[in-house]
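Field notebook, page 168. I keep forgetting to write these up properly, so this time I am using the form the group agreed on. The chain and the ligand, zinc ion, are recorded exactly as supplied. Prediction of the bound pose follows.
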Amino acid sequence: MQQLYTPSKMSYVKGRRPKVDCILCAVCSKDRRVSQLEVYRTDHWVVTANLHPYNAGHIMVFPVRHVVDVRQLRKREHSELSLLQNLCLDVLDAAYKPVAYNIGFNIGRQAGASIEHLHLHVVPRYPNEAGFMDILSDTRTIVESPKRTVKRLRTYFKKLGGKTRRKT
Ligand SMILES: [Zn+2]
């Protein structure tokens, strides 16, 4: 695997965060102080590339509303999420052709959540890479920059996202 991009998760966690109350709320409202990595949006959810990805194509899905626990999600948010989750997998299948996925919420700091605002990680997995525990380590070798990921994902979401697209 060629090393083109090596993010450091720790630099993000230790003080290089933008000065906003909640990074994901800032992303939802397109605040210029935070990186704009949005690739898709529905009525209640935003999908972004991960600024510090564990793997090429690592995306995050989070509610527009500031929610910190899955049990706070409303019925409409839940149903939209299940459609959106499928769409994310279809998009990643088409754009990256991974062989497997890790999908999940980290709820609470002890579980590794560095951002309180609820967010779902969708991490594509590829052949010949290290095991699941390695995605929790501080650094990983990534083969694509977030900027390039955003461009690629936007194209595929546009192509495949028909049913779930935001109505406004
Ligand atoms: Zn928030």
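OBSERVATIONS:
- Confidence is low (pLDDT under 50) at residues 1-15.
- The first helix runs from residue 9 to 13.
FOLLOW-UP: compare against the apo run.
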